[in-house]
Amino acid sequence: MDKPYHEEIKLHILAHIAWLREELSRIDDDLKQMIQNSPVWREKDELLKSVPGIGNVLSAVILAELPELGTLNRKQIAALVGVAPFNRDSGAMRGKRMIWGGRATVRAALYMAALVGIRYNPLISEFYYHLLSHGKAKKLALVACMRRLLTILNAIIKHRTEWKYA
């Protein structure tokens, strides 16, 4: 193949990437506007973002993908998102507990928020390092932080109170 053909493909791909970025920016702006236009969503957004480590992305994902937040207990919401440990026991066989199922988009956003929380949220950070000091694996500790963060967010929405760390 000749060089001009490769350049043409490269320019086409770059133009497509630029168009996708513009579309994503437009969608983000539309989403922000929808949240601001809804008093219920705006209040929930402000409450969620009062927690250190929770930003626009997780807040928007939760508002869009997890309308049950604040209406279920901590075990139910953890199972719904897929961060509750389930056993895989059968007869005399006892296995490790695993997380599975749930809403993958919420779980992925919660994962990133837990990583940020370990650095900037004192409660999540203390919990993470406490688990590590007791010999827990890093992945297990991170999932436990995701569940703890989800539980905190659930309580904040349920009681309509901002984050307070004493």
UniProtKB/TrEMBL annotation:
Q: What is the lineage of its organism?
A: Bacteria, Bacillati, Chloroflexota, Dehalococcoidia, Dehalococcoidales
Under PANTHER family, the record lists: TRANSPOSASE, TRANSPOSASE FOR INSERTION SEQUENCE ELEMENT IS1111A
Cite the Pfam families for this sequence. Transposase_20 (PF02371)
Protein name stated in the entry: Transposase
Q: State the species of origin.
A: Candidatus Dehalogenimonas loeffleri
Signal peptide from the UniProt entry = none
Q: Where is the Transposase IS116/IS110/IS902 C-terminal domain?
A: 46-128
Q: Which InterPro entries match?
A: Transpos_IS110, Transposase_20
